[in-house]
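Input record (Table S2, row 196):
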Amino acid sequence: MAYELPALPYAMDALEPFISKETIEFHYGKHHATYVNNLNKQVPGSRFENASLETIVKEAEGSIFNNGAQVWNHSFYWNCLKPEGGGEPEGKLKEAIDREFGSFGQFREMFSQAATSLFGSGWVWLVCDRAGKLSIVQEQNAGNPLRKGLMPLLTCDVWEHAYYIDKRNRRPAYVEDFWKVVNWKAVEAYYLNRVA
Ligand code: MN
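Output record (manganese (II) ion complex):
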């Protein structure tokens, strides 16, 4: 069973001026694609032959975990973004954010702080537990909160390859522009599906 690079849900230049076409060409077209290729080389003959990507994310270790989780994380990241995104969540997700963090502004501040302060490469996540309680988690490298039984709702990739072409070393500038392309409808849908 071959793992596939999912289609990008928008054109390569669709997130400009916040994330450039060149960044997406490298990030999706090279980095994400390479994780898929590596996974397809490493899974045959391992105990994960025929395993779902989610099983690999939850159970694998070492290189199969690293490549499998990076495939999952990037697909999820692209789905968290959209052209003309940004703004604020609505409905039950907004209520949950207000309840947990005080306000959307305070949530945004905390998530941005988690993204800019994560040392080295990794991912910052908005997650909910089985009771629907929200939290912000930092994960190093290919880390994924599914391994802790937490359900991902939103992620920001803070590997340097996510922003170095556009922003050089300025991770905070990347995080500021990340908010302008968040697909809150998708995040709301993840939240509603997972607490239902
Ligand atoms: Mn990445």
